[in-house]
Amino acid sequence: MKLSIVATLYKSAPHLAEFHARASKAASLLAGDDYEIVLVNDGSPDNSLEIAVALTQSDPHTVVVDLSRNFGHHKAMMTGLAHSRGERVFLIDSDLEEEPEWLADFSGDMRRTGCDVVYGVQQRRRGGLLEASTGRLFYKLFRALTGINQPDNIVTARLMTRRYVNALLQHQERELNIGGLWVITGFQQLQRVVQKHSTSPTTYTVAAKFSHLVNAVTSFSSLPLVTTFYAGLLISVSAAGFIAFLTLRYFFIAAPPDGYTSLIASIWLFSGLIILFLGVQGIYIAKVFAEVKQRPYTIVRDVYGIEKNDRSPT
C-alpha cells in the first residue's frame, strides 16, 4: 500500500465528514486508489465513532480503530501508526486546524530531498499572548532540561516513511511523550512552515501545559535527579561553613544573638527543599512503577473496515 493517513478522533463529529472528504481527495491525487485512512477513536464522548463507522461502510479505504476508553492523544496516535500499512504515513489531526491538502507539499519535499520525515511547524503560534508565551517557555525548558532539540511550535501533521514509522514504534514507553520520540528516533527530518487554523478554542490550560512539561522532561532526562544531588551537596557545604563560622564567632569574637526568626525561616526553607526533592524522586519512581507493570498503553475494543479480519498492529 502506498499511503496511510492516520488521525485521532476526540469530539471530532463537527469536522469529521469534511476531513474525510478532503483527506480522501488529497490521498487519491497522490496514491490513486492505493491508500487507507485510519481513524482512531480515543474514547470520544460525542458521536464521532458512529460517523466514522458509517464512513467505513461507504468508503472501503477507511478503517476505524475504536479504543476501549480515552487514553490520550499521544497514545492514540501511536496506536494509529501501529495499525497503518502504507509505505508513506501521513499523521494529522482531524479537527481541520491542519489541512489535509498539505500532503501534496509534504510529499514533494520528501521526494525532492529524499528525507524520511517532513513535519510542520507554525511560524507564529496561534492564540493570545499567554498562549504564545507559555508555548515558547515550554519548548525552551524542554530543550534545556533534556538536551533534545525539539523545534518550537511543532504541529501534529507529518509525512513519514515506513522505515521511520517502524523505528518509532519500537519505543514501548507506557508514559510516552510523542514529541520527544519523534526527535530521538532520528533519520533525516525536514521541517516545513505551515499556517495552522483555529476551528475551536484551545482546552490546553496552563496547568495542563505544566503537567505535560513535567511528564516530558522526566520521560527523557535524569537531570532533575542530578540537580537534587548537587543542590543537596551545596546546601550541606553551605550549612557546614555557616556552623564553622558560628563556632569561631562564639569562641573568638562573641556569642551570636539569640532569636528564632532565622531558625524558623531555615526550617521552612530546608523542609520545603526536602519535600521538593522527595517529590522529584517520587515522580521517577512512579514512572518506573508504570513501566515495570508492562500494561498496554492502549486497548483496542474493535476495528471497523473492509479488511478488519486481516489487520493487526505492525
TrEMBL record:
The chain crosses the membrane at residues 229-252, 264-286. Pfam families: Glycos_transf_2 (PF00535). Its EC number is 2.4.-.-. The keyword Endoplasmic reticulum does not apply. It is a multi-pass membrane protein. Residues 4-167 form the Glycosyltransferase 2-like domain. It comes from the Bacteria. Its main location: membrane. GO terms for molecular function: glycosyltransferase activity. Keywords: Glycosyltransferase, Membrane, Transferase, Transmembrane, Transmembrane helix. It is found in: Membrane. InterPro entries: Glyco_trans_2-like, Glycosyltransferase_2, Nucleotide-diphossugar_trans. PANTHER family: PROPHAGE BACTOPRENOL GLUCOSYL TRANSFERASE HOMOLOG, UNDECAPRENYL-PHOSPHATE 4-DEOXY-4-FORMAMIDO-L-ARABINOSE TRANSFERASE-RELATED. This is Glycosyltransferase.
